[in-house]
Specification:
The chain has 7 helices and 10 strands. The protein is α/β, with parallel strands linked by helices. The longest helix has 18 residues.
Length: about 190
C-alpha cells in the first residue's frame, strides 16, 4: 500500500464502491446475470451519479421519467429493476416509447442497439435538454449520445461523452467517470 499514490487509492476505492452498488439488486428482486439485467442495473445506478437541474422537473416532487426504446423483454427487465425505486426522493416512472416527441419529457432515455434508426432521429432533438441519453456501441457517442454501453472481454462496460453531458446541463460525479472505460471530450456534432 505504501507504493500506491493517493490518486491510485482513491480510484481503487471508487471502483470497488461502484462495483458494490452495481451488484446490489433492487429491493425485492432476484439477481440475474443476464446482459439485460446488468444494463438495467447500470441505468438505475447512473441516476445515483448524475445530477439534473431543478428546472428539468415539472414540480418539486415530480416523478423521474425513464424512457426506453427497446424490445419488450428488456423493458420488463428494466421495470423489474426500477419498480419501487426512487431518484433523490422522486418516484421513477418507466415508459416504453418509439416516438421522437416523447423523449423530451424524459430524464433518461435508453436506446437499445436494435434501435439505431430512432436514436439517429431523436438524439438531435434532445441536444441541450436535460435528458441523459444512453445507448449501445461507440457509434452512439459519435451521434451525440451521452453514455454508450460497450461489450469488452465479455463484460458490459460504458463510455461517456462529456460534451453531450455538459450540453444537457447535467453534472456527473467523478466516481462514475473513474469507472468508465473511456471518457470522451467533444464528440457531439
Amino acid at each position: 500500500m505504501a507504493f500506491l499514490t493517493r490518486a491510485a487509492v482513491a480510484r481503487t476505492v471508487a471502483i470497488v464502491a461502484f462495483g458494490l452498488v452495481m451488484r446490489a439488486p433492487a429491493r425485492g428482486h432476484q439477481p440475474d446475470d443476464g446482459e439485460g439485467a446488468i444494463k438495467a442495473a447500470f441505468l438505475y445506478n447512473f441516476t445515483k451519479f448524475v445530477d439534473w437541474p431543478t428546472a428539468a422537473f415539472d414540480t418539486a416532487s415530480g416523478a423521474f421519467r425513464v424512457c426506453a426504446l427497446a424490445d419488450e423483454a428488456f423493458v420488463r427487465q428494466l421495470d423489474a429493476t426500477l419498480r419501487g425505486e426512487t431518484v433523490r426522493g422522486r418516484p421513477i416512472e418507466l415508459e416504453r416509447t418509439d416516438t421522437v416527441g416523447t423523449g423530451r419529457k424524459c430524464h433518461l432515455v435508453f436506446f437499445a442497439g436494435s434501435r439505431t434508426e430512432p436514436s439517429s432521429r431523436l438524439l438531435p432533438s434532445l441536444r441541450r435538454t436535460s435528458v441523459l441519453t444512453v445507448g449501445e456501441g461507440p457509434r452512439f457517442l459519435a451521434q451525440g449520445g451521452a453514455i454508450a454501453f460497450i461489450r469488452e472481454n465479455n463484460r458490459v462496460r460504458f463510455d461517456v461523452n462529456m460534451l453531450a453531458i455538459e450540453e444537457a446541463g447535467l453534472s456527473v460525479s467523478s466516481k462514475l467517470l473513474r469507472v468508465a472505460r473511456h471518457v470522451a471530450r467533444g464528440t457531439t456534432r
